[in-house]
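Thread: "does anyone have the structure for this chain?"

Original post by V.I.:
We have the sequence but no experimental structure in hand. Need at least a predicted one for the grant figures.
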Amino acid sequence: MPNSSETSIPNDLDALRAEVERLRALVGPDEVAYQQLRVDLWAARDAAFGAEMAAGELRGQVRILEGQLARAQRNSKWLKARLKAPLRRIKGILRGA
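Reply from O.Q.:
Generated one for you, tokens below.
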């Protein structure tokens, strides 16, 4: 006659297998899928970090371009102011001729 510990082992294994299946049904597929999700999460985090770095570089380039535009506008304004007087004189000369 088998002792009580020998008969409880198959029942315990069955109960454990049933519990594992129940938990897998609750939380999702298997451990490999969770590992892949973790890898995907890391890849997404790295991509987001890279995008933030690229956005920062673009913001820096925009600042540089804004500075160059402001300088070009100042130079244009200065040049127009410097050319107005001689152009008026030339126009006066041409009208008088």
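V.I.: this helps a lot. The two ends are 136 Å apart (CA to CA).
O.Q.: and The chain has a mean pLDDT of 86.
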